[in-house]
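User: amidase, Mycolicibacterium sarraceniae:
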Amino acid sequence: MAAGERPDIEDAQDVVVLVDADGRRRTGDYLAEHACHLVTVAVGARLAQMDSTDLAFAGAAEQARMLVKGTLTAPAVLELYLERIARVDRELRAYRVVFAERARREAATAQELLDAGERKPLLGVPIAIKDDVDVAGEFTCYGSSAYGIAPTADAEVVRRLRDAGAVILGKTAVPEMMLWPFTETVAFGATHNPWDLARTPGGSSGGSGAAVAAGLAPMALGSDGAGSIRIPATWCGLFGLKPQRDRVPMAPHDDAWNGLSVNGPMTRTVEDAALFLDATSALPVPSGGFVAAASREPGRLRIALSTKIPPTVFGRIGPAQQRALDGVESLLRDLGHEVFWRDPDYPAWAVYGHLLPRMWHGAYRDVAALPHRERLEARTKGIARLGKLIPDARIARVRAAEPALAARVQSIFDHVDVLITPGTALGPSRIGQYQHRGGVSTLARVASRVPFQGIFNATGQPAAVVPWGLDDDGVPVSVQLVGRPSDEATLLSLSHQIETARPWAHRRPPVS
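Assistant: Predicted structure for amidase:
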């Protein structure tokens, strides 16, 4: 078959298509001297006009549909990602480890189930797992060389993803102990942003963000204790969702960071994130599930916009981030929503009196559980020392004050359905910008870039970031949508409406 021909295969056997590293279809003669990978088209299907790069960026929901239709096989999509990781991740270092052979066995099993008529929401779809989440038999390193033995069981969220049919592709890079909005460690090096290799993809789910943005996974699991999903999703041009606290299980690391941290998805589309929630939710879901909720029109919403930074955090809004907020205001008015500017009531004690003590004490507990604490980076030890100084009795008082904090912050929802803030205040830092600084010094400098996230970890309510465009340096920017407690459905519906009006999933970074 000559390159570029479209075979008539309605009555033919399965067709194996050779695809080169640039996504071009090749003939069998080309295979002898060049590296290709295979895309299998099943019986009764016509070859879609989708090259390998298009397929890598198609997203989890679209790949799941193709797998069910038989226009794609689970081993083929896995090999596509393994080839791309081998070729692209040398520059990015998004993955800490890739489970190639284990994933091949899982993909083969998934294909057997598909062939037998089994239907699960993520059957055969690869997913990357952040390296603070346990995968049975694989080390959980937390971005450090201080880790202990490999866990013998999957984390509950991984178990649920497997039950939904997902193929576990590998574990993605994190900053040490998930403390920073950049992903650079002594143990494993720096992870780079595929939009600008000189900059960080963010953190702490930086590897997950870089992997999905560069087409090295269709979706990834992240965790978010003070913005760790939303920050890298912003700077990598993805949809990122911090679900309601307890929506997605944290076991066996329940109550991480004294209840601040949650697990959630980083995806190319809103539908992909909804699919993740349907597969993993431990709380009641809306009628028909989250995928159905995302596809429904949100109706006319009352939406507040704010650039207010919580007290005691110093920062300024960059021009690109302000333009994004102004742009979303105009779009939402055009879509028929009632839009106005109104600031939440952030208490003066919210950050230093509530958020940071929970975070620091949580980091201390995490560090205390490690067997080789002497191997930790100096600034990690510094944050752990701060956490050790906070007695359990004070943490109990801080946590007892959460209802009062939540009531004040959430009082804005007496008047609005959704709050929108900038995704971040500024763009990402340069690789190495915070080297040789202590924990407090690093925190003081990076906080001004990302002041809008942590407060909503303290209140526990859902928040999402929606890609908007690029800044003057060609790095993505976003806006953050904050919803009422347990109301991910409205966030998904509004995000999908924005996505339809202003699509983003077609954008691909220079390194992809």
